[in-house]
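Standup notes
- DV: blocked on the single-chain target, sequence here:
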Amino acid sequence: MKKINKTPGPNALTNFAAKNPTARWDPDFKDENGGDSYHAIRQQIFDDQGGLCAYCETKVNNLPSNKQRIEHFHSKSDDGNPTQNWGLDWNNVIGVCIGGEDADKSKHPRPANLSCDSYKNHLISKGCLFVQCEGRLFNPLKILATPCLFNFNKRSGELLPNDTGCQPVDDIENDFSSVKELVEETIKVLNLNCDRLKDQRLAVRNEYNRQVAKARKKKDREVFTRMVVQWFRDKWPNFFTTRRILLGQYAETYLETIDYNG
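- DV (later): unblocked, structure below
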């Protein structure tokens, strides 16, 4: 999971919410202008995210629309506050993948290989997690851009907390005693260490290893500098956080030079 910065309004959603403060996301907004407003907002959301799922960082913008999902971080069904319409809150919507619902069941059986909001909703349906689960996982709109809060096990493909980076963070909801615990729970609630995602991270590691091995044979000492530009010059590669961890200080230096903030 990486930090997301949203393009501020006005946009089709904020304009609709201003005119229709008690309307609902579905069907009211999704049917607005024959669905054109919804499609424009979905495009904007994924553009802001560099085409990545807000949770697992797989590429989503190159997939069919039925494999792109809009997630309300705070459940849109919460109508406890008459002045807060969560369904139409621009700062409450993020773009996600479908969490492995289309994966080959013979290779990646479910629910063990569901992830992201699909797995979170599975936990909610089983009574293992409250619908309103702020404080139980990081909100990608509020997570720190730097330092990276995650680490990566290069042998297993697992995401882990970055002990050095997990320092106290202001302006986040945290039901746990430390940021490290919140990172651990985020990984669990979104099932980011399911076999399906670990395999995909290891594919990124293999790509990294191939490029490094090839460069070493040629005694090419610029491989890391070249790779960091190759990976991060465009917004953004799949498994951004994995690539960032693999490239270490090279990535941090480059991201600093481009004023990376999500």
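- Follow-up: The chain has a mean pLDDT of 95.
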